[in-house]
């Protein structure tokens, strides 16, 4: 599962790759005519909307690719780095950049591209940009409070709007298609030499219908993680897919024996886990089962993964989710954690079963109760083991 870059490219090689990609990006910009300030400024005066069409095309293409790869399980979308948002500083910064775009006819990327091929106005634009960076750095203490204000963290647009990713994708596609149509009409009226006058409208209409149909697919396409969790949690699915169950006495024995080929995965909330955590257990939510951070843990075939939750049904859903993701050697704890707590940890009266092993079981549980309680108390004084997290590559336009 992607993103593949952190697995294949080191931090040092990353700089060289970035340089090569930057040169290639600049070449494409130049070939598309984006080194011309007249073309770039045309979007503000209505005679050339090439820039707008390119940016909408890039946004829709990238968004569609991410959604489709994520749904197919080929891309871990939560491993993608999202730039943190500081709302009002971003609004003011965007306004300043837009004003500079109108006045200078370039954005930072296209100005470097134009300067590289010797355009004098672009060189002055780049010089002005560097001067602005220097002035901002020197005067930063004056802006520091505002610069760090209204922090929203790494939020996605559709999360901040309270809508689904599919609905946002459809809206963006609809806006892009509308923008293409409206700007083409404006461009034809304002610019008699516009390239849009040569557009094949029949092909463009077909393309618009096709991309809107894709938007409708996104509208009904369920979010993969939520869909899989919902599926494995349904009573019918659990009933149709048997899951191995580990008896509480067996788990207690393995804990006392300090079995190294045992890994308990507690899927309860962090608050519940903080109140009571079995020795050596890890608190991982069902959604984090998809994360590459846990791939190494779950993929150890010789290690028995015992899911722990408030009841056996939740545990079985966790087991089935792991199996759906391709992992094996999993089991649910008999009756859930409350049963283990009642039978092993609490000083409840032993209920004989009439077996000849009753006395042995009673003696074992008394011994296990004391030993596991000691292990739990000792675990509270040990700092949680740091989990190696997947690298996220920072970047953006």
What would your notes on this structure say?
The chain is mainly alpha-helical. The chain contains 19 helices and 7 strands. The strands form 2 sheets. The protein has a 5-stranded parallel beta sheet with strand order 3-7-6-4-5. The chain has a two-stranded antiparallel sheet with strand order 1-2. Helix 15 (270-275) links the parallel strand 4 (262-266) and strand 5 (282-283). It is elongated and about 100 Å long.
Note the topology.
Blueprint: H1 5-8, H2 11-31, H3 37-45, H4 50-71, E1 85-86, H5 87-104, H6 108-116, H7 120-138, H8 140-147, E2 151-153, H9 157-161, H10 165-190, H11 201-220, H12 224-233, H13 235-240, E3 245-246, H14 248-256, E4 262-266, H15 270-275, E5 282-283, H16 295-298, E6 304-308, H17 312-324, E7 330-333, H18 336-345, H19 358-380
Parallel strand pairs: 3-7, 4-5, 4-6, 6-7
Antiparallel strand pairs: 1-2
Mean pLDDT, rounded to whole units? 87
Which structural class best describes the helix and strand composition? mainly alpha
By DSSP (H or I, 4+ residues per run), the number of helices equals 19
Supply Rg: 29 Å
Q: Estimate the strand proportion.
A: 5-15%
Distance between the termini: 25 Å
Main sheet: strand order: 3-7-6-4-5
Strand count: 7
Outline type: elongated
**Low-confidence stretches at least 5 residues in length (pLDDT < 50)?**
none
- Characterize the main sheet: 5 strands, parallel
Q: What proportion of the residues is helical, as a percent range?
A: 55-70%
Q: Secondary-structure element order, as H and E?
A: HHHHEHHHHEHHHHHEHEHEHEHEHH
